[in-house]
Design goal:
The chain is of the alpha+beta class. It has helices at residues 8-14, 45-51, 73-85, 106-114, 122-127, 164-169, 175-178, 198-201, 267-275, 289-293, 353-379; strands at 16-19, 24-25, 53-60, 63-69, 89-100, 118-119, 150-157, 159-160, 179-180, 183-185, 190-192, 211-212, 218-221, 227-237, 248-261, 282-286, 306-310, 332-347.
Length: 380
C-alpha cells in the first residue's frame, strides 16, 4: 500500500544519502513497515512493478552499463555477487601433457591455459552440464562425457622458416620471421568434436566452434627443436570455485550522484566550481533578465554574468572537491540516490554483456525457488 501522509517530495528526500566533507549521512533505508507512524510501507508487488525500471546507458558485446532503479541494495548486491561468482562458464580444467620441451614449465603453461577465456555457440554452452568431480562420498563423479567435457588439443613444433638462410644472411633478428611457431598463440588451440557436440558446435569450425575469445593471447615462445603436445579437458564451473570460471572481468555498481546548488554561484566562482567536477557535470549559463529581476533569487544585479548549473550528475565521481573550498560553503549539497544503482559489467567474452544480467536473474530465481521449497518442507 502507498504511504499515508508523506508527500512525494519528502519520500524522494528520504532516498538521498548525504555526502558531506568528512561524513556520510542518511545511509539507512527507512521504507519499512512501522518506521514512520501512520505510514504503511509494506512491500507491494504492484507498486514495485510501477516504480522499478531498467535503463541501458551503454551496450557492446564486451561492455555494458545500465541502471536498476527502485530496488533495495541487498537485491542489487545479490546480482553483483552472482555475476562474479555463480554463473556457470566453460574453462580449461585438466591439462594432459604428452610432451613439452619449451622453456615454460608444465604447471605454468597449464595455469596460463586455464585462464584463456573461451567462447562458442551460446546454445551449446547452455546445453553443456557441469562436470561433477569424484569425491570421497561420490568416487565415480559424473564421469567424462560429451555433455560435460570439451576436448582441446595443442600440437605445435618450432622449426626454421623456409627462407631462414636468406633472412639470417641479411641479419634478420625477428624470431617470428626466422622460425615457424616461434610464438604459440591461443588461436592454435584445436577443438576436437565429441558425440552430440557436433549439432551445437558445427564440426569444430567457424563461429560456433569452441575457441579462444582473443586469438592472439601469447601462450609460450619456442625455438627450433622445441615442441608442445597437450590435450585439455574443459568443464563448466563457477567463479566461486576459481576465478577462471568468472564470466566477467569486472562487475560493479555505484549509486547515482546528486548535486543541488542551494545558492547562486556566479562569475569566477562558477568557473572554479565547474573545475571541481569531471567535464560535463557542471555547465555555465548566462543569468537571464527574468532571473536578475526576480526579488530574492540571488541573481539581482547580475544579468549577463555566468552562473553554475548542474548538467549531468551521471558523470560525477563524487570526489567532494567542491566541499574543500570556503567560497562554496553552504551553496551546494552532494548526495547519492539510495535506490538508483548504476551497474558496469565487462564480459570476458563467453557471453555478451547484456546476456550476463539475464543469466544472473535466472540464477537468483532458482535460488528463490529452492528457498521456497525448503520453507514448504519445514512447514509440513
Amino acid at each position: 500500500m502507498a504511504p499515508g501522509f508523506a508527500s512525494r517530495e519528502e519520500l524522494d528526500a528520504r532516498k538521498i544519502v548525504g555526502v558531506n566533507t568528512e561524513t556520510v549521512t542518511n545511509v539507512t533505508s527507512t521504507d519499512i513497515p512501522g518506521h514512520y507512524p501512520g505510514e504503511d510501507h509494506e512491500w507491494d508487488l504492484d507498486e514495485f512493478r510501477r516504480t522499478f525500471k531498467v535503463e541501458f546507458h551503454k551496450l557492446t558485446p564486451h561492455d555494458a552499463s545500465f541502471s536498476l532503479i527502485g530496488i533495495d541494495a541487498s537485491i542489487a548486491n545479490a546480482f553483483r555477487r552472482i555475476l562474479l561468482a555463480e554463473i556457470p562458464t566453460l574453462a580449461i580444467e585438466y591439462v594432459f601433457v604428452h610432451n613439452n620441451t619449451s622453456i615454460v614449465q608444465d604447471e605454468v603453461l597449464a595455469h596460463r591455459l586455464g585462464l584463456v577465456p573461451l567462447t562458442g555457440n551460446p546454445d551449446g554452452l547452455r546445453w553443456l552440464q557441469q562436470y561433477r568431480k569424484p569425491t570421497d562420498e561420490d568416487p565415480e563423479g559424473s564421469g567424462v562425457a560429451d555433455i560435460n567435457t570439451i576436448v582441446l588439443k595443442l600440437q605445435v613444433e618450432c622449426t626454421k622458416s623456409d627462407n631462414y638462410a636468406e633472412l639470417d644472411k641479411k641479419g634478420e633478428d625477428d624470431p617470428r620471421l626466422l622460425y615457424k611457431n616461434a610464438h604459440v598463440y591461443a588461436k592454435q588451440l584445436e577443438y576436437v568434436v565429441s558425440g552430440r557436440q557436433d549439432q551445437f558446435f558445427a564440426g569444430g569450425d567457424g563461429e560456433n566452434a569452441i575457441r579462444s575469445v582473443h586469438p592472439d593471447i601469447l601462450l609460450a615462445k619456442m625455438r627450433p627443436g622445441q615442441c608442445i603436445d597437450m590435450e585439455m579437458h574443459c568443464v563448466k564451473g563457477t567463479g566461486a570455485d576459481h576465478a577462471k570460471f568468472s564470466p566477467v572481468a569486472t562487475a560493479s555498481y555505484r549509486l547515482l550522484p546528486t548535486i543541488t546548488i542551494t545558492k547562486p554561484i556566479l562569475g569566477h566562482d562558477a568557473r572554479k566550481f565547474a573545475r571541481c567536477f569531471p567535464k560535463g557535470v557542471i555547465g555555465l549559463e548566462d543569468v537571464t533578465s527574468a532571473e536578475a529581476g526576480r526579488e530574492g533569487s540571488g541573481y539581482e544585479g547580475h544579468e549577463g554574468e555566468k552562473k553554475a548549473v548542474v548538467r549531468n550528475t551521471f558523470k560525477d565521481t563524487v570526489s567532494r572537491e567542491c566541499l574543500r573550498h570556503e567560497e562554496f560553503k553552504g551553496k551546494v549539497k552532494l548526495g547519492r540516490v539510495r535506490d538508483h544503482f548504476i551497474f558496469g559489467v565487462e564480459s570476458t567474452g563467453q557471453f555478451e554483456s547484456d546476456e550476463l544480467f539475464l543469466e544472473s536473474v535466472k540464477v537468483l530465481k532458482e535460488k528463490c525457488r529452492v528457498m521456497k521449497q525448503g520453507l514448504a518442507n519445514i512447514m509440513r
